[in-house]
């Protein structure tokens, strides 16, 4: 079992990574001394697959267990679901010492983290991520949130978990498309911080896509180290360090919004956003053509889209201009200086952005 630490003084916590380690959850949690009664937030599909083994491990360590299922959609990240879970939690919480376990993908993790942050002004929680995206990204760093009809993640808090238990064996049941969505984020980490990780993905794509446990453990550990390092130094995105994690997301979010969150999944939109950001980097003479070609090849090999189709160019550009990450009216892009090296650049010319988006696909208008 590998261990990575998020260092935040008294709020520091470990990330445990390995294949098959979820059977040790009871022992790990008992060692943290965070409570005696586990309130496991998950969804029906994941409970059916992994609930019994988790409950057995927790009970064996002398802990009581109660499951709370939420519906398996992004709509579960809502104030109404949070209220329903909080009411159930309060009814369960009689003479107990409760902690929360978030067993699921990013939707479960964000909602469970939010509930943990606000119940009794904060109770301990554990992240047990079950998608590749959640393992390398959403389970680490303490960003918890629910959505409003007005926008995603508008209500939330920074609230760190007490541990992250990342069992890559749980990814076996993940659909190929979901695995690829997470792989887009893994490629992102390679591009912004770790050229060896990028080469490893180039050389081991087949193993990764066929759920090879050693390959998955390797990439999840590398990404967890990078995210833990960034969060430890810039927890609340006050410096530009945590901003680097938005590589590919500026245009990626605009693509998701322009096609109304349906045609492209998050990872697919981020893949296209990374290609646009790489092209902007090349146009600004920060990145060479060969590196840009390598990036396109890897994204293609991962089964992610390399051509944007069926979206309006104007819509992407106007949505991009409403991006909440704009500072004082100037746009901000994370651009590449090389594979493994990124920097935040502001005020990129609209002409260059348009050229890069135009070059990335075919458009309705
Ligand atoms: N907090 C953060 O820092 C952060 C970062 C990135 C994304 N997010 C959030 O994460 C969410 C997306 O998370 P996601 O991509 O994990 O999606 P998700 O949680 O919706 O899961 C995707 C699908 O995979 C299924 N699934 C999960 N684990 C499975 C498994 N082991 N086997 C089979 N099926 C499984 C789920 O039931 C669901 O149908 C978004 O709401 C996004 O805003 C948060
Ligand atoms: Zn993302």
Give the arrangement of secondary structure elements.
Layout: E1 2-6, E2 13-18, H1 25-32, E3 37-42, H2 44-60, E4 64-69, H3 79-92, E5 98-104, H4 106-118, E6 125-129, H5 132-138, E7 143-148, E8 151-158, E9 163-167, H6 176-193, H7 195-209, H8 213-233, H9 249-258, H10 266-283, H11 289-301, E10 308-311, H12 313-321, E11 332-338, E12 341-346, H13 350-359, E13 361-363
Parallel strand pairs: 2-9, 3-4, 3-5, 5-6, 6-9, 10-13
Antiparallel strand pairs: 1-2, 7-8, 11-12
This protein binds nicotinamide-adenine-dinucleotide (NAD) and zinc ion.
Zinc ion is lined by residues 185, 249, 266, 270.
Notes on the protein architecture:
The chain starts with a strand and ends with a strand. It is α/β, with parallel strands linked by helices and 365 residues long. Strands 1-2-9-6-5-3-4 form a seven-stranded mixed β-sheet, sandwiched between helices. A two-stranded antiparallel sheet has the order 7-8. A two-stranded parallel sheet has the order 10-13. It has helices at 25-32, 44-60, 79-92, 106-118, 132-138, 176-193, 195-209, 213-233, 249-258, 266-283, 289-301, 313-321, 350-359; strands at residues 2-6, 13-18, 37-42, 64-69, 98-104, 125-129, 143-148, 151-158, 163-167, 308-311, 332-338, 341-346, 361-363. Strand 5, helix 4 (106-118) and strand 6 form a beta-alpha-beta unit. Helix content is 47%, strand content 20%. The mean pLDDT is 94. It binds nicotinamide-adenine-dinucleotide and zinc ion (ZN). Zinc ion binds next to helix 10.
């Amino acid at each position: 079992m590998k261990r990575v630490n998020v260092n935040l003084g008294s709020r520091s916590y470990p990330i445990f990574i390995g294949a098959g380690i979820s059977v040790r959850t009871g022992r790990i949690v008992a060692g943290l001394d965070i409570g005696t009664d586990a309130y496991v937030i998950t969804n029906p599909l994941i409970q059916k697959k992994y609930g019994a083994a988790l409950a057995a491990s927790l009970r064996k360590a002398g802990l009581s267990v109660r499951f709370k299922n939420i519906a398996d959609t992004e709509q579960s990240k809502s104030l109404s679901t949070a209220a329903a879970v909080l009411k159930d939690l309060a009814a369960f919480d009689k003479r107990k010492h409760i902690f929360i376990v978030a067993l699921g993908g990013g939707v479960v993790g964000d909602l469970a983290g939010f509930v943990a942050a606000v119940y009794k002004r904060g109770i301990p929680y554990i992240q047990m991520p079950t998608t590749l995206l959640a393992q390398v990204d959403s389970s680490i760093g303490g960003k918890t949130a629910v959505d409003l009809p007005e926008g995603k993640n508008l209500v939330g808090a920074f609230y760190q978990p007490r541990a992250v238990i990342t069992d890559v064996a749980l990814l076996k049941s993940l659909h190929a498309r979901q695995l690829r969505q997470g792989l887009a984020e893994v490629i992102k980490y390679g591009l912004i911080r770790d050229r060896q990780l990028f080469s490893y993905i180039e050389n081991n794509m087949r193993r990764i896509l066929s759920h090879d446990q050693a390959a998955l453990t390797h990439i999840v550990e590398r990404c967890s180290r990078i995210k833990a390092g960034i969060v430890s130094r810039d927890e609340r995105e006050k410096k530009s360090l945590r901003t680097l994690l938005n590589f590919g997301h500026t245009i990626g979010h605009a693509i998701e919004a322009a096609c109304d969150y349906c045609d492209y999944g998050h990872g697919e939109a981020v893949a296209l956003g990374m290609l646009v950001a790489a092209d902007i980097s090349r146009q600004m003479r920060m990145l060479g053509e060969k590196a840009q070609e390598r990036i396109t090849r890897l994204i293609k090999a991962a089964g992610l889209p390399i051509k944007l189709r069926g979206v309006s160019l104007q819509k992407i550009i106007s949505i991009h201009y409403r991006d909440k990450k704009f500072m004082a009216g100037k746009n901000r892009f994370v651009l590449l200086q090389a594979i493994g090296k990124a920097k935040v650049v502001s005020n990129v010319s609209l002409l260059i952005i348009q050229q890069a988006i135009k070059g990335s696909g075919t458009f309705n208008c």
